[in-house]
Amino acid sequence: MIRVENIVKSFGGFRAVDGATLEIAEGSITGLIGPNGAGKTTLFNVIAGNLKSDSGQVLMGGEDITGLPPHELFHKGVLRTFQIAHEFFSMSVRENLMMVPAGQSGERLWKTWLNRRQIAAEERKLARKADEVLEFLTISHLAEEKAGNLSGGQKKLLELGRTMMVDAKIVFLDEVGAGVNRTLLGTIGDAIVRLNTERGYTFCLIEHDMDFIARLCDPVIVMAEGHVLAEGKADEIMQNEDVIEAYLGTGLKNKKAATG
To answer: Which residues have a Cβ under 8 Å from the Cβ of 218 and sit 6 or more positions away?
Structure first.
């Protein structure tokens, strides 16, 4: 579905992404792991249109989408979430979800005067859709809660819910487990698997929790120093000597050698 070819992105003299090439297959839950500074989030930002690459291409189904802005990618079904959730904190959880779809009649001032009935019908439809999403995510009890009052994990569920309010084709999740307790992380994982198997979502996620990665992801892609170091199943990756040294640390590699 998404092919990244030789992407380079520099900041001053530092190459955050240095010729990265990878593919995200349609229907997969692909994990992207690597040490801090490996270039993972920078690559996400390039793919999602938040940053422009210095060189290289991003292809979606064979179409060149390199450098398209986020709003154009949104309409193509490319969505991403962020490590720090971006909610409308003073609005309810339901209202946050209802804000997502583009092109609503109520966004145009003149239609608020002339087509109030149409706007009301749209809002009822959006509210029903939002309630379906909340039920799917098992957080219906939070519908009227102000989004700013949610816990970190609940905010991550809300971000996932936003992707369900539109026709998402591929969703990039940036550290969905950061600051989330184990119970809610399990709920988030269940939702991702169900969206993948029941609704055909394709996912690519950055995550440091290897148990979470191993549960959800196939394949797992490892980045180090701005390029792709390895790719394979989670158990293969965790036995890869180069990955152990670059990502898990030479201390663990030496410990394995001493106990092997």
So the answer is: 28, 29, 30, 233, 234
